[in-house]
Amino acid sequence: MLLQDQLCFALYAASRSVTTRYRPLLDKLGLTYPQYLVMLVLWEQDPVTVRDLGDALQLESSTLSPLLKRLEAAGLIHRERRAEDERSVAVRLTRAGADLREKARTVPLAIGEAMGLTPEQDATAKQLLRLLTANVTHG
Q1: What pLDDT is stored for residue 88 in this prediction?
Q2: What is the pLDDT of residue 139?
Q3: Among residues 17, 68, 73, 98, which is most buried (max CB within 10 A)?
Q4: Which of 104, 109, 49, 52 lies closest to 81, judged by CA?
Q5: SS3 for 1-63, per residue?
Q6: Res 47 pLDDT > 90
Q7: CB–CB of 107/26 below 8 Å?
Q8: Once rounded to an integer, what is the mean pLDDT over residues 74-103?
């Protein structure tokens, strides 16, 4: 079995290449890649519970909590216990967090250009990766 013939290595190499391409773009925003993913969820849905955020990002609470602490320290989010359920914590964007969205609008375009895929290839890649994830997660 050759390394280059392993799907797992192709996924690993592609993931590293893409996240490396994100780094200079996100450095300008003061975000790491995982923090950017958290912000993407919040830009789509604000507020969101920590549980729903973890589900959306497929992250455990132990991984998510340090990310949220750093984003809160940076003044981009605010966490608070929900009045209707004290066990649940809501995450909300601050004004600075909401404003950062405008600065981040160029990131997906730059990454898309770097990938060099046609719209059809992009759609196919996403479809296959989602299928792979679902199969491995539930299989």
Answers
A1: 84
A2: 65
A3: 68
A4: 49
A5: CCHHHCHHHHHHHHHHHHHHHHHHHHHCCCCCHHHHHHHHHHHHCCCEEHHHHHHHHCCCHHH
A6: yes
A7: yes
A8: 91
Amino acid identity of residue 31, one-letter, is L
CB 43 within 8 A of CB 99: no
- Residue type at position 54: G
pLDDT band at 15 (very low <50, low <70, confident <90, very high): very high
Tokens of 134: 């679902």
Task: Please tell me the predicted confidence (pLDDT) of residue 97.
Answer: 97
pLDDT at 82: 73
Question: What DSSP state is assigned to residue 99?
Answer: H
CA of 101: how far to CAs of 93, 132, 134, in Å? 10, 30, 29
Residue type, 95: R
Domain boundaries, the chain: 7-138
pTM: 0.90
Tell me how far apart the alpha carbons of residues 63 and 46 are, in angstroms, rounded to a whole number.
20
CATH 2.60.120.200 fits 7-138, yes or no: no
